[in-house]
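Chapter review: from sequence to fold.
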Amino acid sequence: MAIIVRAELKTVMTIKLLPLSATDAAEAHAIHQAVQFKPWSRSTFEDCLTQPYEGWMVKQNDRVVGFCILLFVLDEVTLMEIAVSPDAQGQGVGNAMLEALLLHCKQKDMHSCWLEVRASNQRAIHLYTQCGFETVETRKGYYPTASGKEDAIVMVRRFYSLP
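The token string follows.
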């Protein structure tokens, strides 16, 4: 059974980061489809709810409003996706969810958390930077777009200092 993690922000928002179950996967996948240019299939999405992945969600009024998928390998975790329902964006849910999942990763004794983000997603890059992520590299032409390709920014949040 997974651990419930709570995050409290300076904005006085408290969330519960709950395990994303198969029964809530359809709601989370709908959010994924709403926010991604080329979304994963439902079966690929559900595969990401099995080991070595972990899926987490935030619910408000019995409705999934955000989710994240993590991939754990040895002492590193990759944030495969974090997404908030379009109607719940701008309310601090993403920030609270990110803080909670980073705390969860520290509690699991991970050394670092990695992610990739579209170069055009300045709002997300700003959030990641505020949460201690640093840019490591740029992957040219990584993401598909309606007009071609877009760069990916690779970022890392280290939990422990390097020797």
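Two observations follow directly from the output. The longest strand covers residues 134-145. The chain has four helices and eight strands.
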